[in-house]
Protein 1
Amino acid sequence: MSGYSLGIKELDELLGNIREGTNLMMIGPPMSRKDELLDAIVFNSQKSEDSTIIVSTREPGERVLGWFEDNGMDIQNADIGIVDCVTRTLGLGAADTDKIKRASSPVDLTGIGVKISQFFEEMLVKKQKKKIHLCINSLSTILMYSNIQTVFRFLHVFTGRVKAANGFGLYVVEDEMHDAQTIATLKQLFDGMIEIKAVGDAYTMRVVGMTSKPTPWFEYSIEGTKVSLKRT
């Protein structure tokens, strides 16, 4: 079956197949568990024909892979690659591995781009994978170190690569860290959004731009790889 899914039953039923070449922004307030939501989406949508690149600006690559392994993914056979933007900022001289390629820091957009491109080449050309995910967690960290024009140009290249490869891109943004102009500029690059907001002590989500009207808001909870939704 062509297209992509979020691996979240209620949303997948409403959205149908997400068309190939789609780029989505996931935007929400801090502490809304976006990291876990992103990881769960990757975990639940990873099939044998899938490959995934995760750019991590918050966690070392080993810790990202460790979460997937702890939740039952066969890391050795899964086609998953991490661009680690953290380890070398800590002064640790860790070498690249099959699964982890290191950029010097979140400000090193050239280095990050080279590592993403290496994974694209390995997964799509050498391994002939049919599907590829590109996830960046998070754009907000990158924006702390670079101006919006530089980040826009960087993103324009890789959202274009996702489209050209019939892939699926998912990019995390902290809602309260940026001004309205920055968010409006970023939105130009995306086909839709996963919007998250706080309601009391809970968090709710909806998907905008993928169907003729937004999905309803759903309160969500995450336990390991399972995302449970309750319509609000």
Protein 2
Amino acid sequence: MRHAVLRVVQQVSEWHSQHSMVAPQALQENLNRLPWILGALLPLFGAGAFLALGGRLGADAQTAYFAQWVGWLDLAMMALLSFLIGLIHLKNDSLPATRLGRLLPLLLAVVFISFGLTLSILSQQVLPSATMYVLSCVFVGTLLLIRPSWMAVVYGSSYLVFCLVIGLTVSTLHVAVVMRFHGGIAAALGMCLSLVLWRRHTVTELLRRQVEAQSLALEEKNAELRQQQLLLENLAQHDALTGLLNRRAFEVQADMALQRARRDGVGIAALMLDLDFFK
């Protein structure tokens, strides 16, 4: 049992180190995908606001009150998402270096989960359901790259709030138990999806770095081999004492000169010198 606990602690420590290594790349990946995600959500929130405020979904006063709250929440989300899209487009290069840029994915996760949590709590007055809380947990866990340690705090806190408020808004104990069970499944599912997404990103990024390091080492090795090859060719063609071409290189140069003379139809001459006491 002790060895199993030590292995788990060691594995968690290793994952923590790996997560710190890939955190900057995860932030940049979030900032690259956020405009597309937020842009796709804008028409959905717009349609929800139109149906809630102008579509007359509510048949009675209680349902109409719930619809108004939903509509205003949708409008608030539209305004927030529009502002964030503009901010990302204007400061895409400098945003990762700022505190807001580093915290932006986490803040968005809190906003989306809070939105789903609020709608699920409000819906208890009309129809007991945790659907929006489930969808928000799955949405955040599937699309945002956030460290699991942070997401554990977000999901855990949201579930505690969900359990507390459900106990105050639901009249029967049976419904409260069912809602809390569904909320627990939503938080656990979102946490699992977030962990899988982050681990996949971590493993992929570390493998990419390993491949780049191996490619760089291979290029350096090839460059070293090319230099050694040039050195060997130079030693094979030059005299070590004088640095002049040796007999083998002379024969190659002479053969080329003879072929060039035959091709051009010109004469060729050779000069031979004898140096006394050269040694």
Protein 3
Amino acid sequence: SNVCTLHEHHVSADGQLFGMIMELLEKGNLAQRIEAGSMREFEAVQMAFDVLLALECIHDMAVIHRDIKPSNIMLTEVDGRLIYKLIDFSISVIERMSRDEVSQTLCTGTTTLRAGAGTPHFMSPEQIKEGVDISLQTDLWSLGAVIFRAISGVLPFAPNETDKLKI
């Protein structure tokens, strides 16, 4: 699978997650790879394909990741081939729950679905606009922004344009 494997998790008596044992992904993350130089188109297509496989897996379970960005895409090597894997589901939501149900039951400790959560340069317009429902397509928008960043080496929107995005 192109989703990082969670082997174990540990929860305190009061229900707080305090530890996880995950698969070792020893080749760093996509952000580090991009910092080393923009990707060739073929490499970016392979990365996108791997992430799309991960999104297909989680979307089949009605999970919306909501934070697709280069630092949440890890690299590992399997049989001499680089594989990209999706990590960090800390602000994910389950699509089939209502907005209120998610806000009440899936609080991650730092955000709920009501809050604008994600990384601004990779967030879809519906994530930025308060009160607009998000769907599985929000992850596809974010992946498109990641592909742009990977190939061009620059962010899809200038750092000072994030406020303009909100407007």
